[in-house]
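job 3f2a | input accepted
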Amino acid sequence: MNVEMANTTELPSSWAWPGLGEIGEVNLGKTPRKTQYTNGGGLKIVKFRDIVGDSIFWDENDKGFVVDSESVTTQLCQLDKGDVLVTASAHSSEHIGKKVVYVSTIPQRYNKVFFVGELLRIRVDEDCINPRMVYYYLSSHNGYKAIQDHVRGVHLIASEARKIPLPLPPLPEQHRIVAKIEELFTRLDAGVEALKKAKAQLKRYRQSVLKYAFEGKLTEQWREAHRHELEPASTLLARIKQERRQAAKGRHKELPPLDTSDLPQLPERWAWTRVGNIGEVTKLAGFEFTKYFKYKDSGPVRVVRGLNIGHGQFKASNFKYIDASISDALPRSQLHGGELLIAYVGTLGTAAILPRDGHRYHLGPNVGKVVMNDDLFDARFLLSFFISSAGQHLISTTSKAVTQSSLSMQQIRLMVVPTASLAEQHRIVEEIERRLSVADEIERTVDRSLTQAERLRRSILKRAFEGKLVPQDPNDEPAEKLLERIIEERAKQQATAQSTKVSKKRLATQEMKLM
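job 3f2a | predicted structure (515 res):
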């Protein structure tokens, strides 16, 4: 009995606190040498990465097989139905015990299944211990804490794992507890599945809103009611072009003409154009990054990097900083708020608008900016297009794959986007934001419900292993008596195994003498 644990957790009088090693076999797996692996066959080896969530991913196309040789297989630890697997090695100690699996089935296509040394197996006699009860306890918050108490460095060795205390009810109550947990979890899982479907529907709804927006359907009636007040997009684009020519003072570069013959038809008075025709597209110059940038963990100027650009949202966290003098020396890379930012390396397709929040910002690596005149074009309109399915497809087909997907500034300038009059741009953004804000609120409610479901799952397990989930039956044999029988039976088995081992050794010695 683990006295320390028993003193901190009050259990029913019919329960006991054995260590895992008292109720069953606790063994680490064995990792084969590289030469013992093969590309296929009937001898499967379960690896750390095969543990997905709370189950084993049985990938028949995987290379996790060992050669069919007795000299190999006798060195390995076999896995069977009813075993409980726990992650026993990881890069950081807090991940040990995070994955716990009950082996409910072994695919028939495998002759034998083994497991590697990063995994630890608990095997019990199902006539005395319900293995699912062991699984559920180790999956619980208290079970995880019990595992962590026996981790040494970044490993859970078998000798320590055998000391992990387990709250043990009488055998009939074990079955009642497992049945009740699974009954409640079945209901809970059904609710969680419904919530996840709702989240998927919200995602589809958002894309539908954006799709309709850039097909002109969201503002169809509004546009018809104001048709005589709206200037054609072609007129707006001509004004933008004139304004940018004057600002460039003779340095304005014309982009190639646009062939719209293969593009979808737009609403009347809309037009296709290029991003470079409506805004100035630039990035942090290479020499600026290599020569001047000295990142700091704090400072007056925030550096905007790729990780600050979300899918339509600016992420105001995880900043690096530079001194004001560096930013002042690099005016072309200063940010003033309102710029459309787009990641052009790595996480392509992410775009956001920099807020005007009073902070000083500077353009960092892997982020391009599109600067537009607010009086002529609504940056939110272009952002909404970028995060739509059509915009995402445009970005993915424009990107070039070398070592990683990327976009050049010229590719961004040449991107083809729809545009409407400025008044209709504002109206479209309003309609998008109104609908998506409702979807966001629903999603927050769904997320809260998912969080509550996870808390309820933890509460169910907590109550189960405090003896509060199902009633006790005074007619049940106490766990102490059950534990005595288990220990006695295991002692007999060990004695028999030792005797058999000695007999085999004697026989082998005699055979050697006769040779």
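job 3f2a | Residues 1-7 have pLDDT under 50 and may be disordered.
job 3f2a | closed
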